Amino acid sequence: MDDQLTAITVNINRMITEENLSTCVKLRGLPPSATKQTLVEFFGSADITVTEEDCHIELRSGRKTGWALVFLPGNDEQQTARSELNRGDMDGNEIAVFMPRIDPPRE
Predict the structure, then answer these.
(1) Whole-angstrom Cα distance, residue 7 to residue 93?
(2) Orientation angle between helical segments 36-44 and 75-85, nearest 10 degrees
(3) CB 92: neighbour CB atoms within 10 A?
């Protein structure tokens, strides 16, 4: 594996702020095959328009963790995502869709 790839870490929890808390959702249970385009299509199945730039797949040392954060157009879409996509299927995996929370800073 490429040394640069193994050094990549994307921590989605650091992307959540008070300002965007009501317009994003976290996803748990993504299959290894999940891509940003897969997420765009998953949300499209509930008539929620997101772009690849709105989708962030968590990585630790270059490996997917099964978690993602998706920024949505508004609070209504957050509620729709939670009610229509939670427990949805992606490549045989049941996907949990839920509202994020802001983690307290570590000391």
Answers:
(1) 27
(2) 90
(3) 7
CATH for 3-98 is 3.30.70.330
Which pair of tokens denotes residue 68? 């993602």
pLDDT digits (tens, 9 = 90+) for 64-103: 999 999 999 999 999 999 999 999 999 999 999 999 998 7
Is residue 12 a contact partner of residue 67, using CB atoms and an 8 Å limit?
Answer: yes
DSSP, collapsed to helix, strand or coil, labels residue 1 as coil
The whole-number average pLDDT for the span 7-34 is: 94
Residues 6 or more apart in contact with residue 75 via CB below 8 angstroms? 22, 23
Q: Which of 46, 92, 54 is nearest to 73 (CA)?
A: 54
Rounded to an integer, what distance in angstroms lies between the CA atom of residue 66 and that of residue 103? 19
Domain ranges of the chain: 3-98
28, with CB counted inside 10 A (0-12, 13-18, 19+), is: middle
Helix (H, G, I), strand (E, B) or coil at 11: coil
